[in-house]
Write a structure and sequence with these properties.
The chain is built from 13 helices and no strands. It is an all-alpha fold. The chain has 2 domains: 62 residues, no CATH class; 147 residues, Serine Threonine Protein Phosphatase 5, Tetratricopeptide repeat (Alpha Horseshoe). Helix 3 runs antiparallel to helix 4, helix 5 crosses helix 7 and helix 6 packs across helix 8.
């Protein structure tokens, strides 16, 4: 969307007020759809995605990190996203903090965005070091790291081998296999056997992902 159109819809003062107003925030999803439909950016205004992600995380009684991450990966504020992930990790059940990181990385990769996936990982690691927090050491994190390296090459057989070898870790979240199917499509041209299902599929199609 041209900047002048975005500014006409929302001044930053309006945006701040909108994010705090529980009765008016619902206009943001419609505005995102409008900006995707008629603007220059496929997924709509990054600023609106960031605003909605921040609102969902800070104001929702029960945080749905899938939805929060969905919007953050369509924004541009990697530092804010990393801080949100780390904050959420502090609220997770023991042993589930790595899921939040992996989900975010796989969502970037499902959009074909390897650059920001790597940048987000760096941001999370750096901020955790500064806060003297332990970065999760798990097979799932190993998989994500190996996956990022694999996607830098034309290596579909290695991609498939990684999925098989780390199947038990991937299966910890049903969404991961859906995202990996989309990664295979984006990076290697592998056509999906079935469309994305459930909530994520509905949102993904609405925002032009398929």
């Amino acid at each position: 969307m041209p900047r002048r159109v975005t500014e006409a819809l929302y001044s930053w003062e309006e945006a701040g007020a909108l994010a705090k107003d529980r009765t008016r925030w619902r206009i943001i999803p419609a505005s995102i759809w409008w900006s995707a439909e008629f603007g220059a950016l496929r997924y709509g205004s990054p600023e609106l995605h960031e605003m909605l992600a921040d609102y969902m995380y800070s104001q929702s009684p029960e945080v749905d990190m899938v939805k929060v991450s969905f919007h953050f990966v369509r924004g541009r504020n990697l530092k804010k996203f990393a801080s949100t992930i780390i904050n959420f990790m502090g609220k997770c059940y023991p042993g589930e903090d790595d899921l939040a990181i992996a989900r975010a990385i796989l969502m970037y990769l499902s959009l074909g965005n390897l650059r920001d996936a790597n940048k987000l990982m760096d941001e999370v690691e750096t901020e955790m070091q500064l806060k003297h927090l332990d970065f999760p050491q798990s097979e799932l994190m190993q998989f994500v790291n190996y996956l990022s390296l694999t996607l830098q090459r034309d290596a579909l057989p290695l991609f498939n081998m990684l999925r098989q070898n780390y199947k038990s870790s991937i299966d910890r979240d049903p969404l991961f296999n859906e995202l990996l199917d989309e990664v295979a499509k984006k990076f290697y041209g592998v056509q999906r056997k079935s469309p994305l299902q459930g909530m994520f599929g509905d949102i993904f199609k609405m925002m032009g992902g398929e």
